[in-house]
């Protein structure tokens, strides 16, 4: 791949001395005068350094931990920065393509509200509202059904990213005068000019699960952003965990050999010297494998991979209990196959698949 001809910094943040090294414009290596190659590392951003230091201190981390840090860490997590959604960003979602998506979702809620006997005192709840486009389209469409809208008492948005909260605030045309801000200058409570509905932001679903109203819950491309653990069935017929290690590790607690890396366009996981991180496989059954897989999945063959998202299961269970206790309704939309797949962990950057271990915080990470 063609790279800039400027000499980048090495993994410790120092520039390579240009008198001693020259590099080929088409490779990710610099060459010493004696012909030996020095890999050129990607920039060690504060987040990459944080993850690297964590691994060097305590050993390889789970893919789930890596994903959580790369997406939502306060120091440069991808969603924390909140710039990637939309045509000009890294990926486009259905509501960003057409307003009809949100309008159809609203009609689904109106229809079921009718079927459920028109309950009074409902609230819209959205998990991971992105730029706020979907909720804005849903509210606009819902206003066309005055009786449904009259029953709607507020909007609850579950969103961790301060930057995206600000975007949602703007998109929903919230009024500044009635806004309560958090210490970080992100909105906590506001009123949208769409029918003067109160809007509240939350970090986690637990904060919303009240008994006061009938929840109408929407989650679009939310669950695919939640962290996953990865496991591989070994030749010993046991589940080994795939972990993230530093790429240049020497003499530290690496438990296993480098995991098989797929070069499929789906995972785009080709290992490159430029990256600070690589996947490794535990030699023994890890505690996570023992806890999450137990004796299940005996039908798998040696070499098969599996991805597990306990956080998705936990949020979904909580959602299901709340919705059934309150006679509410929920619409969860995600994209993938309806059978167990092995390796779906991938990065998405500039509308293309990218290696998820490259430059944490610079790309969206998802798993089906
Ligand atoms: N639903 C939107 C955005 C999808 S991107 C759309 O369809 O356009 C995923 C969204 O989930 C982002 O808003 C991101 O900030 C949010 N998110 C990711 N992990 C989260 C978590 N653990 N808790 C709350 N929100 C999260």
From TrEMBL:
Its EC number is 2.1.1.320. Keywords: Methyltransferase, Mitochondrion, Transferase. GO terms for cellular component: mitochondrion. One of its GO terms (biological process) is mitochondrial respiratory chain complex I assembly. It catalyses: L-arginyl-[protein] + 2 S-adenosyl-L-methionine = N(omega),N(omega)'-dimethyl-L-arginyl-[protein] + 2 S-adenosyl-L-homocysteine + 2 H(+). It is found in: Mitochondrion. GO terms for molecular function: protein-arginine omega-N symmetric methyltransferase activity. InterPro entries: NDUFAF7, NDUFAF7_sf, SAM-dependent_MTases_sf. Pfam families: Methyltransf_28. Arginine methyltransferase involved in the assembly or stability of mitochondrial NADH:ubiquinone oxidoreductase complex (complex I). Belongs to the NDUFAF7 family. This is Protein arginine methyltransferase NDUFAF7.
